[in-house]
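protien #1 (seq + structre)
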Amino acid sequence: MKAILAAAAGALLATAAQAAPAPIERINPPGPDGKPALILKGVIVPAGYETFYLSGQLADPIDPAKRTTVEDFGDTKTQTLSVLKKIKALLAEKGYAMSDVVKMQAFLAADPKTGKIDFMGFNDAFKSEFGSATQPNTVARSTFQVANLVQPMFLVELEVTAVKAK
């Protein structure tokens, strides 16, 4: 009888351990103002998580009938919001949420009107989905200025990695 109880207890403990992996560690020291930084220093994902790697996503045109100029896709902030909306939908299709994103790589091209990237516009759009009151998680992120993207009308390309418990 003791052997049966011991085996049952062991099976129960093993099942409990599988049901709840250790939490994701988001390394986020305070920023210069004492508040959590907008971008994580790093993320540690322990065993027990499934990983979803999304390829780089580009903005959708504002008007699907027009898709040849930057104006058809909008400025950096508009394009970033479009890409984040697309990413959110792709994640949802597989049962993930924006709060599951742990890593982002952002590629920004200069706006042909100014010849410069609009980093502030990008960050404004980024803050609509990360580190907000409704979605407090933020991500480890790298942002790159690139000469151009696949087509001259694109100013933003984002790729993300999301994780969730198995």
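ok now protien #2
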Amino acid sequence: MIEHILFAFSAAIVTISTNLDNLVILFGLIMVMETRRAVFGFAAAQMIILSLSLVIASGLDHSRFLNWVGYLGIIPLSLGLYGIWRQRKGSGGRQLPDTGAITSVVALFLTLSIDTLAAMTPLFADSTPAFRLTALIGAGCALATLIGIASWGAPRAQVLGPRFARLDRIAPYIMVALGLYILVNSPTDVL
């Protein structure tokens, strides 16, 4: 039981860390459009990303490439190292796009959530179906928390936005740790 709780917690940490930048953008969108539309677009995009991660990971189960699943850890590891490099180089953050219909908000968050897809797919692929459900529950709780923070922070977005932007600095380090975890604790151990 404790393994499931810890795995759900790790999936929640990954989900939150890969969505801190999205939370800042969500605050920005809330400042210029209806809160309900921005939050719904964010939630829909995240559900699509988690579903896609789960489908990809499940497809790898029935594949002859199952022994290679651990090497998917290279993706979050690379993204994390790239994020650290960008921080050291001093590159600017993501630009706030024009706002529009819910579909454009969903499309925006889908494009910004590639890091979540890259982190959650190997996490799902490297676990049994019972642990996948646990990870999905943990990620869902994390997303509910982020949506709650965004809804609560909507009137306070101008003050809270820069504070959450600073938290985004830890996300690349979490991605590196996740990539290393997937590489070390995977079917590649038997090679």
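Residues 2-32 form the longest helix (31 residues).
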